Fold this protein.
Amino acid sequence: QVQLVESGGGLVQPGGSLRLSCAAAGSIFSINAVAWHRQAPGKQRELVARITSGGNTHYADSVKGRFTISRDNAKNTVYLQMNSLKPEDTAVYYCNAAQFWGKGTLVTVSS
């Protein structure tokens, strides 16, 4: 069983920034793509960003140009840098690799 642990969520004003981290025990990130998903209240979970083991990235249209996903395989950690945050970015953000999911970290964008 692989544990994924997200951190870095919190309350931020519109236009602000946050950096989320996803840490894993073991080297799962070096051989698998890793993705960030989010789920807002009353909505379905959606893909936010994904990075392959080779470093190729994919973003949802709603976050392109504002969010950046990156990975540090030596630290078994994947990051999601979120800039120019909007109220509609409010959600629980989940890290996912293979069949494993973290428990999520809450991001609230509000003035």
Notes: The helical segments are 28-31. The longest strand covers residues 18-24. The two ends are 39 Å apart (CA to CA). The chain has a mean pLDDT of 94.
